[in-house]
Structures are given as C-alpha cells and as structure tokens.
Specification:
452 residues; alpha/beta; twelve-stranded mixed beta sheet; 16 helices; 18% strand; UPF0210; UPF0210 protein J2Z22_002252
Length: 452
C-alpha cells in the first residue's frame, strides 16, 4: 500500500527538479472491431476508443490536482492496426488513421499509438498496406503515431522490411516537408518491440495484453541529476546506490498515480515504465547527468560507461519499488528533446556513430535525430539495419526515430516545438551501402536465440 507520505516526500522533486508523470497511457484492444467494410470498421474503432477513454483526460487532470504531480501527457495505444484491420477490403489504411485521429481528438488525448505493423519475419497483406499508408497517414493526421517492428532476437531481421522503411521514412519526410518533415517524429522502427510501452511514438497495445489497461510512464532526469550533485566525487558504488534510491522514490510516485487512475477508471493497472525521458528544459537532461558524473560533455570518452551505469541502476531501483515495472524502463537519449545533447552535438562532442555506440546500453536507440533531407533511402535503411543488429544480438529493444529534414543540410537547425524540441542537422556517413541493402531476404537470428 502506498501512502501519501511517500508522495509528499517527493514534493521538492516536483517543485525544483522537474519530476513528472510523463504519461498515462490507456491500452485498448481493437481485436473485436474486425470487419471487411471500411466504414463499419472505422465506426467500430471510433466508438470503442471514445467509450473506453471518455474519462481518461479528466481523471489525469483530477490526479494532478489531488497529488500535485504534473501529468504531462494522456495517451492511448491500440492493437496494431495491421492486425485489427487485416480483413478490410481496402487498398489504403489512411482512412483508418483518420478515424483514430478523430477519436483521439474527441477524448482529448495528446497522441494515439498503434498505427503499427509487426514484420520481423515477413509481411502479410495487411502489414504491407499499412506500411505503404504511413507517409500519407502521418501527413493528414495530428495525433496518430506509427511504428514498425522489423526484427527480433528470436527471428532475426527482415531486411526486405528494413529496405522498405528507408523509403517510407523518406516519403514521410517529403509529405510533411512544409512542417520540417515532422511526420518522421511520429514514426519509429523497432527491433524487439515490447507490447506494453506507454511512450510515443512506439506505443501499441500488444495482442498478449488485456482488453483494456492503464500503463504509466514516469520521468525524472532532473531528480537524478540533483541527487548525484550531492555525491559528486564519490566512488562508483556510492554513485550507483544514489541512482537506485532515487529511481525507487520516482517509481513509487508513478505507482500511486497508476493505481489511482486504474481504480477511478475501472481499468486494470498494467505497468510502470520508469524511463528517464528528458525534455528541452534546462535541468531536465540526460546529458547534464553525464556532466555531474564527471564528463565534460555527452559524447566524451566514458559516456557509454556512464549511460550503462545510469540505465542499469534505474532499472534496479524501479524493480524494488514496483512488482510491475515494464515497458522500456531506463534512459532515453533523444537528441532534439534534450538541450544538453543538442549542445554536445553543436560542440562536436557527440556524433551519430557515438550515439549508435551508446544505444548498446540504453533503453531504446537512435531517437529524434535530424539528418540532411538529401540523405538517400538506402543510407536510412543502413542506419536501421545497424540499430536492429544491436538489438537482435544483445537481446534488447532498439529503435530508430530519425528525421531527414527536406531542404536542410548539416549545421542548420530545425524546430519541432513542445516536447519534441529542436535539433541541429547531424552529418551522416556518405559512403554507399545500397549493394548491401538491396540483397533482400532475412538476416537469421543469432545462435543464442535457440533457448528451448
């Protein structure tokens, strides 16, 4: 049982250290909405989403007032549309995305995730229709987020899908070129995607989940930074213990909010995702944590080790605080959403290659990285393949959310706004990888995948 005393202990964290509940995400199954007729299907998913989530935003606002904890986003995730809409007689899933967007606006959530496909071993007809609909769908909607899982440690990497996603990302950038290619900020390509992730753009409601569930994502880079300032210069054991204790307290706040939201909505509690997700605000940065640890800038030698320490001890502290820690849980390293990361890129301390190395030990992967709009689709596919290989071999979730900004080149800035922040256009290795990407087929799973 969680007491209000535990929440009161975090008041200072909330007031001074940017602690917040980043999101309450309601997962909704659309499996019972299947239909061959597009209009009927769209009406069924609209009705189910608006009925299930009609009180979600109000409940979040009430909890904010009662506990004094900012709840930044209220979101919805749904069954991957390529599965739920698999029996549709239609050539395009764009109207489905529009129905999702309409439902999201009706209930007032910030984003709705699940315009997704799971193609780690191959594509069904529905998968391909959905993937080919992504550029248009993300151009004509405001709140819909999309994800595609192209690989897993169990099945390998679907290189046909990797090749296709390079083209889809570039087309999405072109369709939203008038808005600095922001469509790509709502699209993520996964390896080892999880079914209970409450964070966008990769959230979807997995087929192994309940009919409806509440997942909560808590974030507190500023809290961790302040705690580490108090043990500056101490040994690594002290450093690790401090991170664990801080993660424990932050997770308890999320547990309370999740349980109360679940009770008031009459929806089962799913998981707490304790992910240190930064914001563009000063003092709410993963890069600043590295500096407190003793690095001049993110990207300096030692950065990957520092990130490994942070990620591991956040997980350890969170697991002690809740029996239902899930999702991604750890540390995110998005560039545009972290002013310290942006500064490191501008100073030349942080490169795409160093970020890739860091993804070996962080919670996700290459996240919110702006690259030149002239980057080829094969190069984008190569970046996805590299990141998927890291996830496959290391049996962890990795992802790519990369934004080729049409009309902009290295050194220019792009402004996305809100939590998406702003970013410098980063250089990309210009050597050609088309001959590799064009091979097609599937990269087999690694030897350690055979566990039965």
């Amino acid at each position: 049982m969680i007491s209000l005393v535990e929440v009161q202990e975090t008041n200072k964290m909330i007031r001074e250290m940017n602690l917040d509940v980043r999101t309450i995400t309601m997962g909704i199954s659309l499996m019972d909405c299947s239909h061959t007729d597009l209009k009927v299907f769209n009406q069924k998913i609209y009705d189910k989403i608006t009925k299930s989530a009609e009180k979600l935003v109000k409940t979040g606002e009430d909890l904010e007032k009662q506990f004094g904890v900012p709840i930044v986003n209220k979101r919805i995730s749904v069954t991957p549309i390529s599965i739920a809409a698999g029996s549709l007689n239609t050539d395009s899933y764009v109207p489905v995305a529009e129905a999702l967007d309409k439902a999201a606006k009706e209930v007032g959530v910030n984003f709705i995730g699940g315009f997704s496909a799971l193609v780690q071993k191959g594509c069904t007809t529905g998968d391909r229709k959905l993937i080919e609909s992504i550029p248009e769908a993300l151009a004509v909607t405001e709140r819909v987020c999309s994800s595609v899982n192209v690989g897993s440690s169990r099945s390998g990497i679907n290189m046909d899908a990797v090749k296709l996603m390079g083209d889809i990302i570039l087309k999405t950038a072109e369709r939203t070129a008038d808005r600095d290619s922001i469509g790509c900020a709502k699209l993520v390509v996964f390896c080892n995607a999880v079914e209970d992730n409450p964070f966008m753009a990769g959230a979807f409601h997995g087929v192994g989940e309940r009919e409806c569930v509440i997942n909560v994502g808590v974030s507190g880079p500023g809290v961790v930074k302040r705690a580490l300032e108090e043990v500056k210069g101490k040994d690594f054991e002290t450093l690790c213990e401090t991170i664990k204790r801080t993660a424990f307290k932050v997770t308890r706040v999320g547990q309370l909010v999740a349980q109360e939201a679940s009770k008031r909505l009459g929806v089962p509690f799913g998981i707490i995702d304790l992910s240190l997700a930064p914001t563009p605000l000063i003092g709410d940065s993963i890069a600043e944590i590295f500096q407190v640890m003793g690095l001049e800038e993110a990207g300096a030698p030692g950065t990957t080790a520092a990130l490994a320490i942070l990620n591991d001890n956040v997980k350890k502290g969170g697991v002690m605080a809740s029996s239902y820690v899930g999702g991604l849980s750890g540390a995110f390293i998005p560039v545009s959403e972290d002013h310290g990361m942006i500064q490191a890129v501008q100073r030349g301390a942080l490169t795409l290659e160093k970020l890739e190395a860091m993804t070996c030990v962080c919670s996700v992967g290459l996240d919110m990285i702006a690259i030149p709009g002239s980057t080829s689709k094969e190069t984008i596919s190569g970046i996805i393949a590299d990141e998927a290989a890291i996830g496959m071999v290391n049996n962890k979730t990795t992802a790519v959310r990369i934004i080729p900004v049409i009309g902009k080149e290295v050194g220019e800035m792009v402004e996305f706004g809100g939590l998406l922040g702003y970013a410098p256009i980063m250089p990309v290795n210009s050597f050609n990888c088309a001959g590799f990407i064009d091979r097609g087929g599937r990269i087999p799973a690694p030897i350690h995948s055979f566990k039965n």
